[in-house]
Design brief:
Strand content: 35-45%
Number of helices: 16
Distance between the termini: 60 Å
Structural class: mainly beta
Oligomer: single chain
Helix content: 10-25%
Largest sheet: 22 strands, antiparallel, barrel
């Protein structure tokens, strides 16, 4: 009876309201006073609504006293009380918590605050106009607190592709999607001294920012929805769909810092980026094709002040004199050495006499090992800084191009779509300086030593095609996505020291590539007559992957005897320097890949998923997802996710999720093998061979074969809106446990007694071996909070503020999972060394807070951002070297002026106050004789200093 009474009342008052309705109309514009087509205009609490036309105009029948809700992707939703029949509205752009999102649910799109899981939505059009950064990794590092990425230095290939992470987990535990489709990984695996060592990430910098409309960051495990890698979360990049509009941004900047140019001050690290985007409308049903691309170059910078260690021994002084006398210094006889020693002006008479009366070479070797650096620098007219290495960002030249295409075929939703991208970058980084007094330097070629260069060529290509539409009442999407990443090395200004005078000075060192092809079938239907709405989704996926290593030229990887013979056994003696030290083989700084390293490995996986999302009532939402996946190389896994949201009130939601996840070891981790030069804590070079887990070396040491990582996670959060104050707030806590985490081990050495392991190391031109292994279990926990506020003071004065913070902690739990063989040999601490623990737990900030303010005042736009980067720790094997670096606040400021409707001028700064991390304390012994005044292993925000920029933005419609 009560139900009928309520129904009669509803019909009565509804008809009364209807009888009082009248036409409400107006125009909707953006924060630059430009008309906004396609804005959703709805009467709050009803199913009545409309959208604005091409000129931003709308009209709707409504009653005085009702509320209109205006919403549009990329802008904050606005609620306006109807108190007159003409209502014009200005929308405010931003990373709104009211933004409609696609990732994290296969049901109808929901706003960020109504989602069952935490999602950040970043409007890239607004961001790229105001912020100093021009590449995607660095933009996200300063915008999204849970995201971390920094430019690396002295880390081989990692100098050219920045590792990135979410919630402090590994770069390979974040899944990247483009338009909801899986993106392929980079071909580079990080094995040198950097965060993410032993992992493979996605090269986000291969995607031009101009091609991106928005980015959705799902901060929750999603392997049950999207498959392997989504343990930490998902980054979904939504491509630009704009048409009839040319967007052009030209940005130029440089470091204006007190520590620029080897800490002498001035300007360095000059950067230029040119980005453009243009779209064309297609067909009669809203089709489009959008083309976007950019080109950039950046110069390197150096933050090393002066080399403080030894450079020359007395033999180097004799070599200098011999060269000045026209002698061949490749094989000086004892008599020549004694003769030229008399011409070294700073040798005192006693020392010259000792040399002259030396009876054999061993005595000469003992005498001439004396350090004469200061006197020899004076004799050569040089300074210590002439022997600096380059500590800072690499040089880079690159271009990227993307296309996004959609063509609806009818009015029923049938659509063919595609997106594609290509990019090409060349980079140049430098390694450790090879000094004249080192056996790695063949002084007849490089009398003053040399700074070897790693030149990279990185190519990336991708193509996705698909068709979607309705089959009956079911929405069907069939697609195929292909991607490939290639990384080639050319090593220059270097030599193979063991080849001595026969060595080239540049080498093709080979490279590697990774290709992936993913085919998806996704089917879903929304039932609006079941509960308050029920969505059923299911589908299947087939994925093929291929990983290749290509060998370089022979001289780039071989070690030679004095007679020029290739060393194939431990019994052969390499070429030696004057002091009898063996000369290293391969191209200095980066030995090339050999034919023994060459591989071409592939695998396939098939998966099926089921996903259900139900609004049991207007208040209670629940989702369940499960996914089965079978890999051709390690077997099957099944995972689940359960998430829910409950509306405590109209503006307050409680949400939570539990899920299991997995990550299959990458083909890179399974099969990568090579020899590289790694410098230890003392700055001493070690040739380390990385051996695959199915190698004989792994068997000898008891290194088990790799298996998948598994995870369990839980999150709980609260979201709240205060419409009257234009305030929105979310806070989410999370816990992630990962079992059998893959790490890069420490360095295992052979006993040096001619054992099989010694032979294998010799054949690899290495003195130590490392592997990838499921060595540990970890737990991660933290809290993410986001607060957004918008204030519209007048039509020409609006302020938008965003406060976001993340507090996280990752730690190893339980014992190191070493084999009995390693335990008996006492090598457990080598299996997972102390520096690896620091990289995992403390090398990136565990606390990060971001406060951004954007003020639009007429034709001016003021952008102010303060980011707090929490403390980090030096990743050293010796606990006594583990210096802690305190937290810092970095301030960005920019001012934009809209000169005309088509032209905006912006100037500004990143790191306005020229803040640097805490300097390396000499007491910890990590400065490496002046090489590193700031840590290279624990980087909070880099050490480039203040960056000033100017930007011209052109918009032609």
């Amino acid at each position: 009876m009560i139900k009928y009474y309520l129904l009669i009342c509803f019909l009565f008052f509804g008809s009364l309201a209807f009888s009082q309705q009248q036409e409400i109309s107006g125009t909707v514009v953006d924060d630059q006073s430009q008309p906004l087509p396609g804005v959703s205009v709805a009467i709050k609490g009803t199913n009545q609504g409309t959208i604005t036309d091409f000129d931003g105009n709308y009209s709707i029948n409504a009653s005085l006293g009702q509320t209109l809700v205006f919403s549009f992707v990329g802008f904050d939703a606005r609620e306006v009380l109807i108190d007159q029949i003409d209502i014009d509205v200005q929308m405010v752009a931003g990373t709104a918590l009211g933004e409609v999102v696609l990732v994290g649910s296969r049901s109808r799109s929901r706003t960020v605050t109504e989602s069952a899981v935490p999602v950040d939505v970043l409007d890239m059009e607004e961001i790229q106009t105001a912020v100093p950064q021009v590449n995607l990794n660095q933009m996200l590092n300063y915008v999204a607190p849970s995201f971390s990425s920094n430019t690396q230095t002295i880390a081989d290939g990692t100098d050219h592709i920045d590792p990135a992470s979410l919630r402090g987990l590994g770069p390979d535990q974040v899944l990247v999607l483009i338009n909801g489709k899986r993106r392929h990984n980079s071909s580079l695996i990080n094995v040198n001294g950097s965060f993410g060592r032993g992992s493979v990430g996605t090269d986000l910098n291969a995607i031009p920012v101009a091609a991106i409309q928005r980015i959705e960051v799902l901060r929750d495990g999603a392997a049950a929805q999207y498959g392997s890698d989504a343990i930490a979360g998902v980054i979904n990049i939504v491509l630009n769909e704009d048409v009839g509009e040319l967007e052009l941004n030209i940005t130029s900047g440089a470091n204006f810092s007190k520590n620029a140019n080897k800490q002498t001050g001035g300007i360095d690290g000059e950067t230029v980026n040119v980005a453009a985007s243009y779209g064309i409308a297609l067909g009669e049903h809203g089709g489009f094709v959008n083309f976007s691309g950019d080109f950039d170059y950046r110069e390197p910078y150096n933050r090393m002040a002066e080399w403080e260690g030894s450079i020359f021994n007395a033999y180097n002084a004799i070599e200098r004199v011999a060269v000045n006398n026209g002698a061949d210094i490749s094989n000086l006889s004892n008599s020549q050495i004694q003769e030229f020693a008399q011409q070294v002006s700073y040798f005192d008479a006693d020392f010259q006499n000792d040399i002259a009366t030396a009876e054999d070479r061993s005595i000469l070797q003992e005498l001439l090992s004396m350090n004469v650096t200061e006197a020899e620098l004076d004799a050569r007219g040089q300074q210590r800084s002439d022997y600096n290495m380059r500590v800072g960002q690499s040089a880079l030249r690159g271009g990227r191009f993307f296309a996004n295409f959609s063509l609806p075929l009818d009015n029923t939703g049938t659509e063919i779509y595609s997106f594609a991208g290509i990019s090409s970058r060349t980079g140049e980084s430098a390694g450790f300086y090879r000094l004249p007094n080192q056996s790695r330097t063949y002084t007849p070629i490089y009398i003053n030593g040399f700074l070897p260069r790693i030149n990279s060529k990185i190519k990336d290509q991708s193509l996705a095609v698909g068709i979607k539409g309705m089959i009956g009442d079911w929405s069907v999407d069939f697609s195929n996505t292909y991607g490939k990443n290639e990384f080639d090395y050319l090593i220059s200004n270097t030599s193979n020291a063991s080849l001595e005078g026969a060595s080239p000075t540049s080498f093709d060192a080979g490279g590697f590539s990774f290709a992936q092809n993913t085919t998806n079938l996704d089917i879903s239907q929304f039932f609006d007559d079941i509960f308050e709405g029920l969505n059923i989704a299911f589908g299947a996926e087939h994925r093929w992957e291929n990983y290749q290593i290509v060998a370089g030229e022979k001289a780039s990887y071989e070690q030679y005897t004095e007679n020029g013979e290739v060393i194939t056994s431990a019994s052969q003696m390499p070429a030696q320097d004057f002091f009898g030290n063996s000369r290293a083989g391969g191209s200095q700084v980066f030995p090339g890949f050999s034919p023994q390293n060459e591989i071409s490995r592939e695998r396939t996986s098939v998966a099926g998923y089921f996903d259900v999302e139900a609004d049991f009532s207007e208040k209670f939402l629940m989702t369940f997802a499960t996914r089965f996946e079978n890999y051709s190389d390690f077997g099957s896994t099944i995972n689940f996710k359960l998430a829910s949201r409950y509306k405590l009130s109209e503006n307050v939601n409680l949400r939570g999720a539990v899920n299991s996840g997995f990550r299959a070891p990458s083909l890179h981790q399974l099969y990568f093998n090579s020899t590289s030069t790694i410098f230890n804590d003392e700055g001493i070079p070690v040739e380390v061979g990385t051996f695959s887990n199915d190698s004989r070396a792994a068997q000898l040491l008891g290194i088990p074969e790799l298996k998948e990582e598994t995870s369990r996670s839980v999150s709980i959060g609260l979201t709240s809106k205060i419409p009257d104050a234009n305030l929105t707030f979310t806070v989410d806590g999370y816990f992630v446990a990962i079992d059998d985490r893959v790490v890069y081990t420490g360095q295992f050495r052979g006993p040096g007694t001619g054992t099989e392991l010694d032979q294998l190391l010799s054949q690899a031109n290495a003195t130590a071996a490392s592997f990838f292994a499921n060595a540990i279990d970890t737990e991660s926990k933290g809290i993410d909070a986001v607060l957004t506020h918008s204030a519209i003071f007048s039509e020409n004065l609006q302020l938008k503020s965003d406060l976001a913070a993340t507090l996280s902690k990752t730690q190893q739990v339980g014992d190191i999972q070493a084999s009995p063989e390693l335990e008996r040999a006492g090598l457990v601490d080598t299996y997972f060394p102390e520096d690896s623990r620091i990289y995992l737990e403390e090398a990136v900030p565990r606390t990060k807070v971001n406060l951004s303010n954007s003020l639009v005042a007429g034709k001016f736009n003021f952008f102010l951002r303060n980011v707090y980067f929490g403390k980090v720790t030096e990743a050293a094997s010796d606990p006594l070297r583990q210096q802690e670096f305190g937290g810092k606040v970095i301030t960005d400021l920019s001012v934009g002026y809209k000169a005309t409707d088509a032209l905006t001028l912006t100037i500004g700064s990143n790191n306005l106050f020229d803040i640097y991390p805490d300097a390396a304390d000499p007491a910890f012994g990590n400065r490496s004789d002046g090489r590193f005044d700031w840590s290279r292993s624990a980087q909070q925000f880099g050490f480039s200093g203040r960056f000033l920029f100017a930007r011209i933005s052109i918009n032609l419609k």
